[in-house]
Design a protein that fits this description.
This protein is mostly helical. It is built from 1 helix and no strands.
Length: 76
């Protein structure tokens, strides 16, 4: 192997190692983004579901009152 080929191989090795480091960092960033996206989704959905479950009896009462007013208005 002559010195030019050896230099090209060493340069190729350095570039491939640098490429490998960059790809690993990209994978870590994507994994982190997926986890944060899931956490944000949970932070949004859990309070909505909890609020609905907490407010459901009050909403049912309000709906019954509204239906009563409608029936009263139809009777006139």
């Amino acid at each position: 192997m002559n010195p030019e080929e050896r230099a090209l191989l060493e340069q190729t090795l350095k570039l491939s190692e640098e490429n490998n480091r960059m790809l690993r960092n990209i994978r870590k960033t994507q994994r982190r983004a997926a986890i944060y996206g899931f956490i944000k989704l949970v932070i949004i959905i859990v309070p909505l579901v909890a609020g609905y479950l907490f407010l459901q009896p009050y909403l049912n009462q309000a709906l019954e009152g509204y239906n009563g007013v409608q029936r009263l208005l139809k009777s006139y």
